[in-house]
Structure formats: structure tokens, C-alpha cells
Amino acid sequence: MQDIRRIIFSDEELGSAFEAYSRKTPNFLPPGKIVSCSTLVASGSECAVLVRIDTSQESGPKQLELTFRNANVLQPLILFCLENNVMLPRQGRKSFSIVEGKACLIIDLNLEFDLGSEEAPMRSEDIPEIK
User: Fold this and answer.
1) Partner of 107 for a Cys bridge, out of 3, 62, 92, 103, CB 3.0 to 4.6 A?
2) Rounded CA gap, 16 and 11, in Å?
3) What pTM was estimated for this model as a whole?
């Protein structure tokens, strides 16, 4: 049996995830304010997040564009879920994808049961008739 969960993030939630992760990991982003976060499909089907950061200083406005892939996207998404009490199975394989233009955390949990075992979670014959 396989359980696949998809948690889809709005662009605002994606920005919040990157802000929270940068507070916990000081060198993750350069100093500045996140202006926007958006998803993009890079070469082929590789998914990425584009983060625009305002690094304005006295010398005038300046924006940096940084592209993040794979674990560098997963870490902020997972932290966002943990900080916002979104339950994530510890054993699940986590990956990042884009669904309908939005960042998506995919959790793939393979569940194996021995249905012949007395310890199987539930068999149809174990369900009492509702009267």
C-alpha cells in the first residue's frame, strides 16, 4: 500500500518558509528582504524556486535573484510545516514538485502489511456489524 500526500504552498507561504528558514540558518540567504518567491520549471522537468531579495543599502536599490532546487527547497518547506503544526510522517520520503504553478511538498509513505498476520491493522472480518 502506498500513501502519497501533497501539501501545496501559496507564493506567500513559500516566502514565509524561506524567511523562517533563513532566520534559523544565517548564511542561507544574503542580507536583505525577500521581495518575492515564485516557482519555475528549469531545464527539462526540474523544479526550482526563484527568490528575489532586496539588498538595498545607501548606494541605492539592488535586487538579487537566487534559484533554489531540491534539498534547498525541501528544508524551508519542512520547517514551515513543523512551525505551523502540519503533521509530517517521519518515515515518509519527501520531495519537491510544482503542481498547478505552486510549490508542492510531496510525502510518499510506503506501507507494507502482512495481511495473514494476526497483527494486521484491520481485516474486514474484524469489523463488527453496525446494528
Assistant:
1) 92
2) 9
3) 0.77
